[in-house]
Amino acid sequence: MAEIINMPRLSDTMEEGTVAKWFKKVGDTVKEGDILAEIETDKATMEFEAFHEGQLLHIGIEEGGTAPVDTLLAIIGQKGEDISGLVNQNDAPASTSKPATTPEVATQAPSTAEMPEGVVVITMPRLSDTMEEGTVAQWLKKVGDTVEEGEILAEIETDKATMEFEAFHAGTLLHIGIQQGETAAVDSVLALIGPKGIDVQAALAAVPAANTQQAASPTSESVQTPQAVATPEPVKKEVATPKTTPVVSNNGRVVASPLAKKIAEEKGINLASVAGSGDHGRIIKRDVENFSASGTAAYAAPVGVEKITELANSQMRKTIAKRLAASKFSAPHYYLGVEFDMDHAIAFRAQYNTLPDTKISFNDIVIKAVAMALRQHPEVNSQWFDDKIVHNHHMHIGVAVAVADGLVVPVVKFADTLPLPQIGSSVKDFAQRARDKKLTPAEMEGSTFTVSNLGMFGIQEFTSIINQPNSAILSVGSIEEKPVVKEGKIVVGHTMKLTLACDHRTVDGATGAQFLQTLRGYIENPVTLLV
């Protein structure tokens, strides 16, 4: 299926871009991570890489041409695919010359107020071609701080990864429009930077309404005032009936607005006794004004207190929910369960790990075995499209990795050609960087089959939802010591249960069973992995 590539927004102020150079021409094969073109923005000329594989079917903006953000840049798809409808729908003539330079704020929608001189509006950037909204994972500057060009302002969580966002302007951070933990659409007001002492209210009044309405609205108390304490991630909101304790930050300080703190100090109220009703349990003005020691004491009588914890949905959790729901309800899943003898695999691993500086896991053996089995069963290594089925002849194995916010699937590419130690080091590196949110989008795309292993958690067997566009996913359980029958005798053995989930549109039951037979041969006789 053809993928439309639009002119990306490569900086917070970019309204249009110029194609400085194309590195691919129509008809060329494109792989994930290939550099498609150099895009000249209002800040710099940057390389723009492909997030999709296929053939370059159409170029919408020729070299030297200039066009607004989101204009059709190119189309990537399958060779011979009809894209006339996409071209006619999206094609718009691009200017062949660059417009005269204009102030960055002046390019925005008209407003009834005039923007104070020197103030720059920073909007939520589009950090990937599929990004529609972003979450501020962490602010590295607070209101009132001096900002130098090139300094990291914040970490932005997209649907693919968490990325550092740097400042393109120098000045004072006058306003934060999207608080830590909050989510807003691309182009929403993220911050204002300008000269110290500027009237922030006047600057906000000059921001286009379309931008301010998309942003998460801060409370009236905190428009110009920095948060006293950073909100921990993920955002947690404690709700209790009755509520007798305030929310406390990671460093032990009570989360309260500056005005609430001032009133509490004047009235001699201990904030540790005040329940917060603001965003994420923050103590605000009305909480202090309505506080009474006697009222709090009255709640001491109940034997128990109902309590819940609300967790704001992260971008990763939203994406997981969307994709897995789409997979479960669009692909007709069926499941094939097997139990493999692991005695030879245990002996093989123990002997292999006697080699100097070598340590492989059972998961590495499974990944290698899966990749080699897929060579013989391209039907399982396939993808479904409305008009065709694509058999992949490269083995890119996605490895499910649990992280704090959910699940990511980095990809071990050409796993059938890699030695076991290299597979092991790749998976360990992916797992560590996944937990640190340092994986790049390219490292999580392009899988043709997925392996999910919960054996290390003691799970004997389970089923998984297919990671589309894959046609199958293998669920791997723990190795269990148990009585088994060998050569007519009951002996102590070791077995492992695996469950293959298949998309019935592409993989028939007999095909899935034949794949598992081939996989059994590799795992039960792992020396064949070295041939």
CATH third-level topology of the largest domain: Chloramphenicol Acetyltransferase
The overall pLDDT average reads 82
CATH superfamily of the largest domain: Chloramphenicol acetyltransferase-like domain
Question: So what's the CATH class of the largest domain?
Answer: Alpha Beta
Care to describe what's here?
The protein has 531 residues and is of the alpha+beta class. The protein has four domains: 3-90, OB fold (Dihydrolipoamide Acetyltransferase, E2P) (Beta Barrel), CATH 2.40.50.100; 106-222, RNA polymerase II/Efflux pump adaptor protein, barrel-sandwich hybrid domain (OB fold (Dihydrolipoamide Acetyltransferase, E2P)), CATH 2.40.50; 236-311, E3-binding domain (Dihydrolipoamide Transferase, Irregular); 315-530, Chloramphenicol acetyltransferase-like domain (Chloramphenicol Acetyltransferase, 2-Layer Sandwich), CATH 3.30.559. 21% of the residues lie in helices and 29% in strands. It contains eleven helices and 28 strands. The chain has helices at 84-90, 200-205, 209-214, 258-267, 285-289, 293-297, 315-330, 343-352, 362-376, 420-435, 509-524, and strands at residues 3-6, 16-22, 29-30, 35-40, 45-49, 54-59, 66-68, 72-77, 120-123, 133-139, 146-147, 152-157, 162-166, 171-176, 183-185, 189-194, 236-241, 306-311, 333-341, 382-385, 388-391, 397-399, 401-403, 406-408, 411-412, 449-453, 472-486, 489-503. Helix 9 (362-376) packs across helix 11 (509-524). Residues 92-111, 213-244 and 295-301 have low confidence and may be disordered.
